[in-house]
Write a structure and sequence with these properties.
The complex is a heterotrimer. By secondary structure, chain A is mainly α. Chain A contains 3 helices and no strands. In chain C, the strands form 2 sheets. A two-stranded antiparallel ribbon of chain C has the order 1-2. The longest helix of chain C is centred in the C-terminal third of the chain and has 33 residues. Classes of the chains: A mainly alpha, B mainly alpha, C mainly alpha. Chains A and B meet through α1, α2 and α3 of A and α1, α2, α3, α5 and α6 of B.
Chain lengths: 100, 317, 511
């Protein structure tokens, strides 16, 4: 089994964990962490495909896409975090369901 | 031996992701998140993606982790304030709720498992080989840089990178929009009283600056580049804020805006200049491409660093 | 692809809004609105000129950086994207005008929301970029731009409701884009290219492609609030400021729809089957019925309009099952394709006009009353005849009564449904219209009912009402150039083409 196969399988598992976490976790922070884990899975998937060609270096296109993707995902997550904190400051709520 | 390391890293990252989601305490989840990011960074080094590893360790794990840690302080502060009230009452109701929500949860679990199996099959069937490695390599002499990842980021797919520098600015604006911009103008953290901390920060700053500049310049030839440098420079701003020098909120508004928009604006400006001479947007003459890319990266790094500092300074109020 | 004439307009259509966003940021807050207003006129003019360019030259492309795909990125402006860009510009200019007066009218009490203009220009750049994009990953970046700016605009009021629904919107949208990106990763893994044109040549059917199709479609359905994933839309759209709600409902959700249309008709032909189309159709029909029914139950005007958005977006999904044709039948002999496409495009246009008008009217009503409870719309006709007229006209277009654009959309959809033999969609379309008629007439009945109170409406600038009225009229005026528009759209490669399914089975239309 080649290296990239191990990581591409891992990436799928990570994506599923993130997806499950996003649905099942209650707290805002945990939901936000879940989105980053999901992203980590996707990026790992892309990078693992870059390692297949076994030339002198790996495929640079997925690497560049992943760097772009990481920054975009982190920006979105930071925005979500600021919203969550703002909501918490206003009402003390930490989840979507609690009605305090 | 190699394969053992890979399997270990893979298992570790899955385990840490699980812990992130299932750790009973939120603070634990955040610490595990740091570890998760570092494990991923190691995995990327194993896959030969050093650029990505630096970006992951610095931005996804480092910057995001710091923001999460700080939010933790926010969330758990109020938690401990009404400790008794919160701990006793809702906990019971949560348990009752849990039972009634068991069936949808099992359904979701089965759905996720199914999803996992289908996606595993999909990934398993990916053909071996294929990709743009050879093509990207063959054009590298025209791109002005020697490192293929930098060539893709700043030349072949410069449009994406340009938009992405914009995304950070948009994220900052959106964070302002969510928080109300007036809050931003209030005084920040009270100056740290710890003289050792302040001294340590002052020592760190030139090191970080030089390291950032090094990453920026050597992005031409090896792993590194605008984003990695930006995080180093952003760390300077963040450290200064932590030490009680709210530099970013105190510099004049014009300069602040100039720093925030320089990357996006200069990138566009250069792109348009060569468009007026008959080329396409972001088309650089190969002779000058190396120099132009370095300039764009410098401005981009300044802008991203400023935006990261601003996000941090605004969020930690 | 490279054979098309190159033009610099596609690049300018993205560059100009971003330039204006930077410019508006640098200027002081009280000058920002001026830049915003004139800037949106400028983008409107640019969109018009590019539209004319496409009329004259047909599809034009712009090879960014001079790097041809698959290594580089290419912007493509074909008639279909030109229509979407034109629509965005038309609605955008009117919403900018409205916003200008809206903030002036609210200035005394509430402040002026300085971040509106830069975020709106970034959003505009994202929309234009999405419509022009020809690259899977670039589509991801543009849709993230749209998401971040849209949520940023939605939470602009800073109220708790807006923040909470904004966070729900953002998390749903992030999940959607991650799912989409996962699909993109798989496609890149199996083909080694991201360019849509290349992909349509090299993508082979198989398990990986099927899964990529499923996950990309799911991600986009979350983003466009299709039926099982619509939960975020009504609260987010109703909690935002009035001009922002109009932008979100009229333009932002259309972005994900446009992406889905492009990807289904141009890239994923190899994996689509009859069943896939039917599933999407069922989701659409469910959205039509559920959204209309929920709208009927609402007591707040804005929530009603937002639920109606869920329903109207459902009609768009119902065009997909009609596009999939049986193996062996050529696109030319399938006579229901043209009505189905016409229905889709006209639904997009008429809904954009009608819905933006309704949300702008909601803003006027909130300004006049201080709230938007439906029961206090009594006697609206007497005090604000123009707004009442705008609501009436936009409502009639939503129901689909002749001679509105909505009528054209629904009539063509019915025609397509019967020509293709998939008659089972007809009851959902008709029932949806009936329910829509229910809530529109409920509004109008109240508007005409005499009130016991003497004028409880505060005065609202006439200019705001005129904006809403013009947009409402737009949903009717659009049928006048309908013939020419369809002719123009036929120059687009995908317009009027079906998705040839390679798997046999099921009942394909008139097989």
């Amino acid at each position: 089994m080649e290296t990239y196969k191990i990581y591409s399988i891992t990436s799928v598992v990570l994506f599923a964990i993130g997806l499950g976490g996003l649905f099942l976790a209650k707290h805002f922070l945990r939901k936000i962490i879940a989105t980053i884990i999901m992203g980590g899975g996707v990026f790992l998937c892309l990078v693992s495909f870059a390692d297949r060609d076994s030339l002198s270096y790996a495929d640079p296109v997925p690497h560049a896409l992943v760097i772009t993707g990481i920054v975009v995902a982190v920006t979105a997550a930071a925005f979500a975090l600021s919203l969550a904190r703002r909501i918490h400051k206003f009402s003390g709520e930490e989840t979507f369901t609690d009605e305090k | 031996m190699d394969i053992l390391i890979d399997i270990l890293l893979a298992l570790l990252s899955v385990y840490l992701a699980f812990r992130c989601m299932l750790a009973p305490k939120l603070s634990k989840a955040v610490f595990v998140f740091f570890a998760f990011g570092l494990t991923l960074a190691l995995a990327w080094i194993r896959l030969g993606a050093v650029d990505v590893a630096i970006a992951e360790a610095a931005i996804a794990s480092g910057f995001m982790g710091v923001l999460l840690l700080d939010s933790l302080r926010d969330f758990s502060l109020t938690f401990s304030k009404n400790h008794n009230v919160i701990e006793v009452k809702p906990n019971n109701s949560v348990e009752v709720k849990n039972r009634s929500e068991l069936f949808p949860k099992i359904g979701l679990g089965i759905g996720l498992l199914l999803f996992l199996l289908i996606s595993l099959e999909a990934v398993w069937n990916i053909p071996e080989g294929g990709g743009l490695t050879a093509l990207a390599g063959s054009k590298i002499s025209e791109s002005g840089v020697e490192h293929p990842v930098t060539a893709v980021l700043l030349n072949y797919r410069a449009y994406d990178t340009w938009l992405e520098i914009g995304v950070i600015l948009m994220g900052l604006l959106a964070i302002f929009a969510a928080g109300g911009i007036k809050q931003y103008r209030k005084a920040g953290i009270t100056p740290s009283q710890d003289p050792i901390l302040r001294q340590a920060i002052l020592i760190f700053i030139p090191v970080l600056f030089l390291f950032g500049a090094f990453l920026l310049y050597f992005g031409k030839m090896g792993p590194g580049g605008a984003f990695q440098a930006a995080v180093m420079w952003g760390a300077i701003g963040i450290l200064l804020h932590l030490g009680g020098w709210p530099v970013f909120t105190e510099i004049p508004r014009r300069l602040r805006l100039l720093m925030l928009t320089a990357g996006l604006g200069f990138f566009l400006f250069l792109g348009l200049i060569f468009m007026t001479t008959g080329g396409a947007l972001f088309e650089y003459p190969p002779a000058y491409a190396g120099l132009l890319i370095l300039m764009i990266e410098t401005f981009g790094a300044v802008s991203i660093a400023a935006a990261l500092t601003a996000i941090f300074a605004f969020l930690t109020k | 692809m490279i054979n098309f004439p190159t033009s610099s307009f596609p690049a300018l259509l993205v560059a100009l809004p971003i330039f204006l966003a930077i410019l508006s940021l640098i200027f002081r807050i009280n000058r920002r609105a001026i830049i915003g207003l004139w800037g949106s006129f400028l983008i409107g003019i640019l969109a018009l000129v590019s539209f004319i360019e496409v009329i004259q030259k047909g599809t034009v492309i712009h090879i960014l950086g001079g790097w041809e795909p698959p290594l580089g990125i290419l912007l493509r402006m074909d008639p279909l994207s030109a229509v979407f860009i034109g629509l965005t510009a038309t609605i955008g200019v009117f919403i900018s005008l409205y916003t200008w007066w809206y903030f002036r009218a609210r200035e005394a009490s509430k402040g002026r929301f300085p971040l509106f203009w830069p975020l709106w220009f970034f959003l505009w750049a994202g929309l234009n970029g999405l419509f022009l994009s020809n690259d899977l990953f670039n589509l991801y970046v543009t849709i993230e731009i749209i998401t971040i700016c849209a949520v940023g605009l939605a939470v602009l009021s800073g109220e708790k409701n807006a923040l909470k629904s904004g966070l729900r919107y953002l998390l749903a949208a992030i999940a959607g884009s991650m799912a989409y990106l996962f699909g993109v990763a798989l496609i890149y893994g199996s083909t080694g290219t991201l360019d849509l044109e290349h992909l349509s040549e090299v993508l082979k059917p198989g398990k990986t492609t099927n899964f990529a199709l499923i996950i990309i479609t799911l991600g986009l359905m979350i983003k466009k609030a299709a039926f099982p994933f619509h939960f975020w839309l009504p609260p987010a759209h109703s909690a935002a400021l009035a001009p922002v709600s109009a932008l979100l409902s009229a333009l932002v959700v259309k972005g994900a729809f446009y992406m889905m249309l492009r990807l289904w008709t141009e890239v994923f032909e190899v994996s689509l089957t009859f069943a896939a189309g039917q599933l999407i159709g069922i989701a659409g029909a469910a959205a039509v019925l559920w959204g209309s029914w929920q709208a009927l139950l609402q007591t707040n005007f804005k929530l009603l309009v937002a639920h109606s958005s869920v329903a109207q977006m459902g009609y768009l999904l119902m065009m997909f099952p009609l596009l999939i044709i049986a193996p062996g039948i050529s696109s030319d002999s399938a006579n229901w394709l043209s009505p189905a496409w016409t229905a889709g495009i006209f639904q997009v246009i008429s809904h954009a006009f009608a819905k933006s008008s309704l949300f702008l009217s909601a803003g006027i009503i909130i300004m006049a009353l201080g709230h938007d409870r439906i029961e206090s719309l009594r006697d609206l006709v007497a005090w604000m005849p123009m707004t009442a007229m705008a609501i009436g006209i936009a409502g009639v277009s939503l129901i689909g009564l002749p001679p509105s654009g909505g009528f054209m959309a629904k009539w063509m959809l019915l025609k397509g449904v019967f020509l293709s033999g998939q008659w089972w969609w007809a009851p959902a379309i008709l029932l949806g219209s009936l329910l829509t008629a229910g809530y529109v007439f409920m509004l109008l009945r109240l508007a005409f009912a005499p009130s016991r109170e003497i004028n409880h409406f505060r005065s609202v600038p006439k200019s705001l009402q005129i904006c809403a009225l013009i947009l409402a009229l737009g949903s009717f005026l659009i049928v006048i150039p309908a013939e020419n528009l369809i002719q123009f759209l036929e120059g687009s490669e995908s317009f009027g083409s079906g998705i040839q399914s390679i798997v046999k089975g099921g009942r394909y239309g008139n097989e």
